[in-house]
Amino acid sequence: MDHSNMAGMDHSSINMSNTAPPVSASTQTSDSNIVDGKNLTLVATESSLEVKPGTTLPVWTFNNSVPGPQIRVKVGETVRVTLKNELPEPVSIHWHGYPVPNAMDGIPGVTQDAVVPGKTFTYEFKATVPGTYWYHSHQDSVNQLDRGLYGSLIVEDPKEQYDRDYTLVLDEWMSMGLMDMSNMGNMNGMDHSSMPGMDHGNMNSNHGTNTSSDSPAAGSHDMSMYDIYTINGKTGDAINSLPVKKGDKVRLRFINAGYLTHKLHIHGHDYRIIATDGQPVNSPALISNQLIAIAPGERYDIEFTADNPGKWLIEEHGDEDRMKNMRTVIAYEGSNSSVTSDWKEDQPLFDLTKYGAATNMKFTLNQPYDHEETLNLNTSVLNGETVYTINDKVFPNTDKIHVQKGDIVKVKFINKSPKDDHPMHLHGHFFQILSKNGKPIEGSPIIKDTLNVKPGEEYVVAFEADNPGDWMFHCHDLHHASAGMVTDVHYSDYNSNYTPDPTVGNKPE
């Protein structure tokens, strides 16, 4: 693609009262923050991020940027990224959605030791599958993602050409700063300004299998603390616009790096949803005026032709003030018009299970499978703490899914939580969605690595065990993962050469 047509990056001013160096917030639309991943060093370091004028947050970054640099390679190239840790805590990099070799998956205590302060680790893998992916720390990930340790990974298909190619990374923050979640039970009357770093890890300090949902304490965690919604590290009017020219072929890559689902509305244009989680949709139809729900960990790629000059909103739909600040503008060059909305009441929610054209699918509901698993997802209480369970167990006591290379596996998700969504993410593999709530998929085959299962919903998916290793399978609301909703896909015919170092303090979730 031609990066020369991309808009410049907004290097906003930083409140220098924070002792850490300032961070750049990028629209991921400038050569200055798009890097070649064939030989790259990512430095994890402390910094500060001005999400809007007057609001600066303490953050952890890759290369002093939130999001971190966008890594771009072409299919067939080898990605070689050296992680250098200048943080006070160990860190790692997981390549979310990408089928890397198991040793490169970045899971502390499972595939590697976390990189301790002052040390390095080099990740190397071949880019074989085009699409939109991302990377993030998987060491104590509920905390380290919240602090800003993430970025995008784009594997380009040389057959695809766009005049404009924008990546929009969605996230949520707290204006009170990054809190210590271990004190959440005693927040009344606290001086939040003194809270140092956010620690979600104590939500489930005593893992076990004897859980009960009868306690009145059972229920979802309060996510209202996330009062700042951002796109590429900026919020509200501070978010950069997306310049286009009439006639441009435009691609928008949405990545949800946060812990909440965001329903987005694209104004003024018909568009196609051409990929989900990096995988193409078959014969995507033109749609408009629909809400696109993007759950934690998911990616949606959208294509449109710039055929309606003016300034048009892309915004989150919702009545809460924090939602109204997740917005950017499709801005036609030379247009002097005001920002326009074509919002209508009762806009439908986009339904991926009925979109695109049916074609031959790799898996079917009725074919024979080597393994059939049911994962009952639930919210419960253990020793007075909210936990998130798979088949009434919490990690590390959940039952592994045992496979051998070449096995075909069918998995049924059933969300029994009364209020909680569970975006389930499988490492190292893609899976195909076969049915939703007992009804077979009607449209294009749907291939994903992250699937949001809402309360009361039931999905059946299938995958081939084609990437030997030990792979995590967990909820990507990482509050839920850190409180138990994790299992593993374990290849019995895989022998790892890795032995964990007990002195490192590996925290895979």
UniProtKB/TrEMBL annotation:
Residue span of region Disordered: 1-33
CDD domains for this protein: CuRO_1_CumA_like (cd13861), CuRO_D2_2dMcoN_like (cd04202)
The entry's keywords: Copper, Metal-binding, Oxidoreductase
Biased composition (Polar residues): 12-33
InterPro entries in the record: Cu-oxidase-like_N, Cu-oxidase_2nd, Cu-oxidase_C, Cu-oxidase_fam, Cu_oxidase_CS, Cu_oxidase_Cu_BS, Cupredoxin
PANTHER family recorded: FI03373P-RELATED, MULTI-COPPER OXIDASE
Name the record gives this protein: Multicopper oxidase family protein
